[in-house]
Each structure stands twice: as structure tokens, then as C-alpha cells.
Amino acid sequence: MNKLKTYLPLAIILVVASFVRFYHYDTWSLSNDELSALSRLNFDSFSQLIREGVKVDGHPAGVQVFLFYWTQLFGLSATAVRLPFVLMGIFSVLLGYLIARRWFGKTPAFYAGMAMALLEFSVLYSQIARPYISGLFLVLLTVYFWDSLVFREKPKWTYSLLTGLGYALAMYNHYFSFLTVLVLGVTGLFYVRKNRLWPYLLAGFIAVVLFLPHLPVTLFHLSVGGVGGWLEQPSAVWIFNHLVYVFNESRFLLFVSIAIVAATLIHSNEVPRWTKYHTISSVLFLTVFVIGFGYSLFINPVLQHSTMIFVFPFFLFMVFSWIKSNKVSHYLIYVFTAFLVIPPDGIAAFYKEQHFGEFKGVAQHFRQWNKEYEDDEVANILVVNDPYYINYYFDDSPVKFDKILNGEKGELDDLSDFLAQTSKSRVCFAWTKPFNPQLYDIIRGYFPLVAEDKNYGDLSRITLFSEDEGQIYDSVFRKGVPADVLVYEDFSDKSTDLGNNEGNLSDTLGRKVYRMEKDQKYDLEFTGNYEFGRQGIKEIEIKGKLYSDRPLSNAMWVVSIFDEDDQQVFWKGVSLKHFSKKLGKWQEVVFTPETYKLNSANYLLKVYIWNRKGESFLVDKLSVSAYGY
Fold first, then answer.
1. If you average pLDDT over residues 244-261, what whole number do you get?
2. Band of the pLDDT at 509, cuts 50, 70, 90?
3. DSSP state letters, 183-224
4. Lowest mean pLDDT, pick from 38-52, 192-206, 225-239
5. Taking Cα atoms as reference points, which of 356, 337, 439 lies closest to residue 115?
6. Is 523 strand, coil or helix?
7. Which residue has the higher pLDDT, 268 or 565?
8. What is the structure's pLDDT at 74?
9. Sheet holding 403-405, edge to edge
């Protein structure tokens, strides 16, 4: 019975941890980072792997080298690739429980272990083949050996070797797991006893020697500054947002955890006691955060939620270490577990969410729509980092892509050239990474209707556009929110709400249109004061008809916005050359500048045509609409 009481809580935790990690772990799409790693495995030699697969990535070589040999044995399927990371996620829970029990007792260990088992933060990174859960596993394994070396009556030379190996493996895994064990090693110098000093120093020496072959790669990574080219600097309240993120992005769940601790303290009527293990836990968590935060502010942004996973158990240890073993804590564990499981904040909702950009579903819809509408009717266009990411899911039935884009601004003209020349009646367009949203405007200028659409949590999307079949864009993308038409002008009457020269009105095919003349640099200006932001306008849309018998190159449609001090806070223009490719025909112009980035305030809006180099063309049916969804 004593053994049962000792090991039953751990068994329950491991069963729960295993179930939630194995459940559907291989059915959802591989993420961008996973596919990036797999795309950098097809090399003929180890040296080529390091040169072309590791140095370009910005992470140490450990996980990439592991995947290189693992996939040679077991293949590239999601099942095979993710399996070792799922297992390391489960063993991380085991190690977290064992360390917490050593340091703080059985009851705090049960709470911390159950939190590690069920929090989405831990589960998510246990289901992706990247160096996050592997780093957590290696850090906790190293801490377990380190604790045995520093504090336990165990064979010290054996644990010296094991601790040194743990250091080295964590160093090879990720630079933040490297930082974590570095902080751990320095911290141990303040606690190690004299009779264990040499074994302790030997552990550090072993780690240094084992990492020396990787030093040239690390120096190269430091010279380019890491991955900060696409990350934003962390805000002053980043750490508080991170703590909420750890608890399933739920302030309520974080509050429940703290309330449970408070309830057990009140019931026990004991004064909390600070121990050396509180100091070690707080030093590991806070030092890694402070260094990452400072590096991100003053050198290059590298701090992300994922990079704090290596120290997040130590925050859990600090929170639950104060829980006392009494009737209240034994009862509240059921309440705590229920909140960790039951939606909307529990793990049950985790499997219904879109966590990363989608590739598997996008590939399925490409195949489905091409088959349904026949290949010769559909032009396939994809925004992706690397074609491998989508081709991974096309091994059995490949789809031919007419355009593969990176989402850069310079691709707008290339896309409009293609759309003007294609004879196909539909465009299947998908994006799987951050991209230039004006690509949608260009496509709508040629294919205005939406026949099919699938949105993956605004992390990726695939849409089938059509010339003459489907719904209007607004009903799909804006969920039917009606437009507030600020101005509409079809030039049927001489009077107009747009600043213009009435002498430029001319008859074409029995109706009035407006002729832009070569000597008019600015024309057709619309102005008005409007509230933007949370309670006002979120998005502006400019539409019109354009006719030219020669290619346009410089004329632009411009949106300019000014604050109450007459300072310009927003400027965006779209080149009309993108919508004048079909010479001698009327074409649709669509322009949706990114005004959603504006703060809530009253602004002066100006919309006008900027005829920079004096080109001549016709315009008609101009409108400026606002959406406040």
C-alpha cells in the first residue's frame, strides 16, 4: 500500500501525459519549422549537412543531426518524425515530477506534474519535431543528474560524467537550452561542497570538450545575430503575457492556480519557508528571461514563448511549492485537473485550434479543386517559403503550380502580368506564411468572385477565385459585414463629390467617364474626417474601373491619413500598372491599404490619383468604402 501511495500519483500523471500527447499527434499538418528541417536533410555527407543544413538555420546541430540519421532509418512520415519528440515530452513530465518531489515534496510534485502533463504549452511542443521539447527533456535530465552530484549521497564521479554529458547535449540542442545549463552550472558553484568540487568542475570540462567541434558553427550563428530578423522586440510586459500564455492564454487558469496555493496556505496556517530550491528555481527562470530580454532589446530580438520552455517547469515549481499536504490540497487537485481539461481553457479545446500554418489541408484542397474543376481551368498560385513544404504532401498526386511566390512586394507586377495573360477561368490561391496582402487586390482585379474558400485560423488560407461564378469577396472575407460607402461616383452627372476638372468628363459608349490628362498630377481627391480604430473604421477599400490603350507605368492610387495636428500618420499607394495589362479593355481596380494598424482616433482621410509622370487614361465608377468589423 505504501508503494501504491508513492507511485500511483506518478502513474496517473504519466498515463494522462501519454494520452494527450499521442492523441492525433501525427494527423495534423507538419508546421513550417518542421518542414524546413526536413527540407534540409537530403544531403550526401555529414559535412554537407552541417554546411547547408545547420549553419543556415541559426540553431545548434543536435536536432538536425538526429533527424538526419533518424529519418534514414524510419522515413519522413509525420508518425516517424514526431514520435521521439512525443516520447521526450512524456519523459519530461516524469523528470519534472521527480525533481519537484525531491525539492518540494509529493503534493507540490503532483500539482506541478499534472500541470506539465496537461498545459497546452507543454503538449503542443511535445507534438512537433523541433528542438523545444527535446531541450526541455535534456535540461530536466541534466538538472536531475546535477542535483545528484551537488546534493545527494550518490557516486559522485558517475554523476560528474552524466552531468557533463547532459550539459553537452543541451548545448547542442538549442542556444536557450545551452543558456539554461550554463546558468545551472554557474549556480552550482555556490552550492557544491568542497569534497565534490573536482567532480563538479570535471562535468563542466567534459561539456566544453564535447562542444568544441561545434564552436565554428556557433561563432557563425553569433556573427549573423540569430533569428531576430523577423521577430519584434519584446514589450515591457512581455513576461506577464508569457505567464498567461503558459497557462493556456487564460488569466482565469492562472488565477485558479494561485488561488489553490493560497487556499492550502490559509488552511495549513503555516508561514511559507524559502529554501535553496526556491532560489535555484527562481535563478534559472529569471536569469534566462533577463538575458533573453536584454539580448532582444539591445542586440537582436530572439525572445519567444517557445524559447522559455526550457525553464517553464521551474516557474511551476515555484508556484506549487507552497502547496501543503492537507485535506484542502487533496480535494483541490480534482478541481485543478478539471480546469486543466474542460473547455474553454482546458486541454480539450487544444485539438480544435489551429496552432501553426497549414500545409496538409492546403494540399488536399489544391488536389480536390483541381480535380473538380479540371486542371486546364484552374491556375494554381502559392505563397510559401520553399516548394518542398507543399510538395511533401503531393508525393502520390502532384499538382502543377503556375506561380510560386515568396510574398514580396516586387511580385505584384509579375502576378498581374500572369493574370492578364492566362486563359484559365479560375485561380486557386493559397498562402502559408506572412505575405503581402495586396496580392488579394491584384487577383480580385482579374477574378472578382470567390467560388471556394478555406481559412485555417488566419495562419494560412486557400481560396478559389473565379471570373463569373461564386460569392462576392465581402461576404466571404468580411463575413458579410456591410460596407459603409463613403463616396461613389459614376460621373453620370456633372456634379461630383470628388475634386475634379469637369472639362475632363467625356462620353464613352453612351455614358460619362473621367479622362485623366497628362498635365494633371493630382486628381479625383476625396477627403473626410473619420474615426478609426476599435470603435471606428478598421479597413478602407477603394474600387474603380480603369481603361487604357497603352501600358501605364507610374500612375498611382493613394491613401493618405493625417492626425489632428495635420501630421501624416499613414501613406499607401498602389500602382495602376497592375490593373492596366489588358489594353483596350475596362479593368477592375481594387486597393485595400492596411489601415487596421492605426490607433483609435479621429483622422483626416485623403484618397486621390497621383499621376506622377503625366499619363492619359480613363476611370469610372470610383468608390471609397469603409468596414468596421
1. 94
2. low
3. HHHHHHTTT--GGGHHHHHHHHHHHHHHHGGGHHHHHHHHHH
4. 225-239
5. 337
6. strand
7. 565
8. 97
9. 403-405, 378-383, 426-431, 461-466, 449-455, 471-472
Length of the chain: 629
Closest by Cα among 610, 523, 622, 518 to 571: 610
Residue with cell 499538418: 29
SS3 31: coil
Could you tell me the pTM of the whole model?
A: 0.90
Alpha carbon distance 513, 505 (integer Å): 6
Q: What does the radius of gyration of the chain's CA atoms come to, in whole angstroms?
A: 30
- E strand or H helix at 452: strand 449-455
CA–CA gap between residue 578 and residue 441 (Å, rounded): 10
The whole-angstrom separation of Cα 294 and Cα 85 is 30
Check: CB of residue 439 under 8 Å from CB of residue 412: yes
Distance of CA 50 to the CA centre of its chain: 26
Whether the bond into 448 is cis, omega within 30 of 0:
no
Closest to 488 measured CA to CA, from 559, 544, 561: 544
Question: Which residue, 610, 31, 24, 17, is CA-closest to 359?
Answer: 31
- 281: Cα separation from own chain's centroid: 28
Q: Which three cell numbers stand for residue 464?
A: 478559389
pLDDT at 491: 82
- DSSP label of 629: -
- What is the rounded distance in angstroms from the CA atom of residue 131 to the CA atom of residue 137? 10
What domains, with CATH codes, occur in the chain? 2-352 (no CATH), 360-477 (3.40.190), 484-627 (2.60.120)
What are 188's three cell numbers?
Answer: 552550482
- What is the per-residue pLDDT for 375? 60
Q: Ramachandran region of residue 464, left (φ > 0), alpha (ψ -120 to 50) or beta?
A: beta
Cα(358)–Cα(369) distance, integer angstroms: 17
